[in-house]
Amino acid sequence: MPKDTSIKKILVIGSGPIIIGQGCEFDYSGTQACKALKQEGYEVVLVNSNPATIMTDPETAPRTYVEPITPEYVEKIIARERPDAMLPTLGGQTALNCAMALHKAGTLEKYGVRMIGADAEAIDKGEDRQSFKDAMMRIGLDLPASGVAHNMAEAWDIAKNVVGNYPMIIRPAFTLGGTGGGVAYNKTEFEEIVSRGLDLSPVHEVLIEESLLGWKEIEMEVMRDSADNCIAICSIENLDPMGIHTGDSITVAPAMTLTAREYALVRQASFDIIREIGVKSGGSNIQFAMCPRTGRLVVIEMNPRVSRSSALASKATGFPIAKFAAKLAIGYTLDELRNDITKVTPASFEPTIDYVVVKVPRFTFEKFKKADERLTTAMKSVGEVMSIGRTFKESLQKALRSLETGRWGFGFDLKDPKNPTRDEIAAKLAVPNADRIFWIQTAYVNGWTLEEIQDLTDIDPWFLDQLKQLAEAGMKLKELDLLEAKKMGFSDRQIALARGCTEDEVRAARKAQGVVPCYRLVDSCAAEFEAITPYFYSSYGEENEARQTDKKKIMILGGGPNRIGQGIEFDYCCSHASFALKELGYETIMVNSNPETVSTDFDTSDKLYFEPLTLEDVLNICDQEKPDGVIVQFGGQTPLNLAAALQERGVPIIGTSPRSIELAEDRKYFSALLDEIGLKQAEAGTATNEDEAVEVASRIGYPVLVRPSFVLGGRAMMIVYDEKELRTYMREAVDASPERPVLVDRFLEHAMEIDVDVIADGETSVVGAIMQHVEPAGIHSGDSACMIPPNRVSVGMHKEMMRAAKELAAKLNVKGLMNCQFAIKDEQLYVIEVNPRASRTVPFVSKSIGVPLAKLAAKVMSGCKLKDLGFTKEVVPPYYTVKEAVFPWNRFPGIDVVLGPEMHSTGEVMGIDADPEVAYLKSQISAFNALPKEGLVFISVSDRDKSIVTEIARTIAKAGFDICATKGTMIHLLQNGIECERAYKVHERRRPDIVDRIKNGDIVFVINTPGSHDAREDEVAIRAAAVSSNISYTTDLSSARACAAAMLHAKNKETHVRTLQEYHAEAMAEYQN
């Protein structure tokens, strides 16, 4: 069937910010969809609140709205644009929930907009727990014994009369990544999880089902078109058994342990399900569980949309699911579409792969010290890596060394536990955790049998046997033949450690014996047809399918797995580098291990190497490709950590030199440089041990900001107020050494922090933007809201920052991007730090000013001049943009949400408007911290904040809100003529206390700043209650002031929506005047 010509304009809904459970997979999917629809001649309108994505680039869709993804704002866009159709199946749960809300409100009918990809009935059938259960029973498929509850009374009835025995699984409806769900082993946990799940489900519904803990979990990615053609794209098997969210499990494609008959059963069941649910034109992800003893197959759930696993399946097979899903949604059938890899086979050919793909999740529990690290049905990982190998063993080792956690493979490295006890091993095996895969290696090394490990983990014996073979090979790695070791995925570093030599010596020995990697093509059809697209993975002892050309080549090193401190922003920069260099005629080569991203899309670069970002793997690719230049400055800390070693080995690094990047981190050099150009820095020193740190702090005075050198995301950064805290930090938080000293800075209290992004070519420096932080200095820049252009910076300070940034770029010989962080205190400018590389702010700045800085920087790094590129002066937009951070607090119940110098956010959103208060208001809505319009505001601040809170409270009262406060704050407000009522702290033992009132929904907004140590327990309870009850809050007075101003401003003001392209045209008109 040809495409639907009755449709002219399509609204695509994005997924919003990167959060746990909904990562940048949907940026990849949405970008694919927009490109596919544009290719077919449709006018694409996009709404997405995330500035860090390729999806919100103005080139991706001709009309881009960076606005909150809420029914209210999307209706404004629909009213303005009048699209014929809406595609909601490529923006994760956010898009699906928004589309369903618009459908139920009658908005789509009112404006004549129809859903494509999946209609409302199919979405409801797939997402509503009871509807799905009824549908499965109609087609004779088995489900766990279960019931759907809408309140605690119904939940207890189901627990007693339907399910019967603990443990029980609780799954909220219409949530993502298992949010609010869990495993209840007793009545207390049951009540806690059900209560939380009902609160977090937008339809107040949870499914309570029998436990299938220990069963195999299988996922199927399937597609169906309007002619009822169904294909299975990929089967994915979890290495971990049921009970762990699939996003937190190690997964393997294709499924390894199913018999041919079992696979046929799962495949047919998938087709039956997608037909019964009614997905007529698109992709779906379906999850099954299989009892390893009886073979009983049950259906767990189905996503009637492109899912998190769809990106993995696309990268694993080379079959672009999102692209084809978009084309099926507009009427094409699978047989009418060509496979992008072969260019000759139709899309109706099911992909077949003759290699093994392994995905390993990336966790950041170190950022959340008191978080529960046990893995359950609620997802906790923040990113993932993928690897491809000829065998499971090879692929797993490659994935484990891609994680950026200091592991070199399946153990046999410097992080193996020293002399663990049997009880310690047993505890780590029995309770699912992020490191369990390494504890399996430890168990084998310490003499455990496969049966003993299987008894504690319920992992399938096939996987455990493969791991046993790896462990046995690792124990004799010193004598193992080099080719045999490499075929099993052992890294040069592992071999060097076993042999007592250096990595370079192992590399030389390998090359002398001809043991070098071969590069195989991902072809989607098990080599039956020639693959046109150069998408490679490495292996040993195989045919080399790498292709050579005569073009000049530039290699771009990606950022590896998403984690807190290094997110999608760096992938954005890498993708832009590839686009820019292709425009200049270079052959671009991307190296990355992250399956979620646009950079690893097969058509982003001329060649893609899906490989670990380690010195060994990158050097191997350099040997194969012999690039004319390598870019290390765009992928965050991952490639920067390799820069010096690559340069030492003759790899041509282009742009700002690794030496300049290191010098910016060198305290003594940098201090001398600041003195030379007349810039101040807070007093500081370096320490290589505990006593040195105390001596430095005593000299410069407390409080001090302490942090290790060479880190990203403020890892292990802390504000310390006395010697006792400092000694504890030095002993427990860092490993100080002469090579890695700890930096000790005088902390500038109550200072305003500023970010400045600069682009330089060695002759000309241009400031991209000056970003004014909303929160005070001391809160990590990645966690702080910030505004472009600044509205609280004096003309004098503005000029001084412009001068400072340009002189720093010149002195550090920057060729590309640079980020400067300044603090302003008492009209004095202080330099906090300078990073002569791409920073996480680049996408936000680019979207704010309408200039693609990363693209320009890549061209500069290849030799172009800014004058020739037409960018020689600062763009000051005649509107305001606000970046706000998004946090994963609801994934880690009970932890304190107060912000500090260590980064905790997983993603970001942008608000944009001609009015700064409205831009801030929009950013809060998009960041799930929507500001209320009326109700009771709770205020409780520390003694040092009472004088500042007075005007904030007055603004809130002026906006028509009522105020309640704890005793000390209440007395202060009453003394200043502000009406408020008393609220009781938990420790006062008066009920209802403030936590009761928050949980009961009496409070609409919380202002609570951290006070004394004694008050801490009360404060944590207040802030945790606000998070769990989904009530907006703030923990510092700078953001409280901004929230109060926005609440007052928005009281009687209608908000409007405009496209990014319209804003940018306005900015360019001013720039050219």
Task: Give an account of the 3D structure.
The protein is α/β, with parallel strands linked by helices. Strand 34, helix 32 and strand 35 (962-965) form a beta-alpha-beta unit. The longest helix has 18 residues, at 260-277. The mean pLDDT is 91. It is globular. The chain is built from 37 helices and 38 strands. Helix content is 37%, strand content 19%. The protein starts with 8 loop residues before the first strand and ends with a helix. The strands form 7 sheets. A 7-stranded antiparallel β-sheet has the order 14-13-10-11-12-15-16, sandwiched between helices. The chain has a 7-stranded antiparallel β-sheet with strand order 31-30-27-28-29-32-33. A 6-stranded mixed β-sheet has the order 17-18-21-20-19-22, sandwiched between helices.
Topology:
Blueprint: E1 9-13, H1 25-39, E2 43-47, E3 63-65, H2 71-81, E4 85-87, H3 92-104, H4 107-111, E5 114-115, H5 120-127, H6 129-138, E6 146-149, H7 152-163, E7 168-172, E8 182-184, H8 187-200, E9 206-210, E10 216-224, E11 230-238, E12 251-253, H9 260-277, E13 282-290, E14 297-303, H10 308-317, H11 321-329, E15 356-362, E16 383-389, H12 392-400, H13 422-430, H14 436-445, H15 450-457, H16 461-475, H17 482-487, H18 492-499, H19 503-512, E17 518-521, E18 535-539, E19 553-557, H20 568-583, E20 587-592, E21 607-610, H21 615-625, E22 629-631, H22 637-648, H23 658-665, H24 667-676, E23 684-687, H25 690-700, E24 704-708, E25 718-720, H26 723-732, E26 742-746, E27 752-761, E28 765-776, E29 786-788, H27 795-811, E30 815-825, E31 828-835, H28 842-849, H29 853-861, H30 866-869, E32 880-886, E33 907-913, H31 916-926, E34 936-940, H32 946-958, E35 962-965, H33 967-975, E36 981-982, H34 994-999, E37 1003-1008, H35 1016-1028, E38 1032-1034, H36 1037-1049, H37 1060-1072
Parallel strand pairs: 1-2, 1-4, 2-3, 4-5, 18-21, 19-20, 19-22, 20-21, 34-35, 34-37, 35-36, 37-38
Antiparallel strand pairs: 6-9, 7-8, 7-9, 10-11, 10-13, 11-12, 12-15, 13-14, 15-16, 17-18, 23-26, 24-25, 24-26, 27-28, 27-30, 28-29, 29-32, 30-31, 32-33
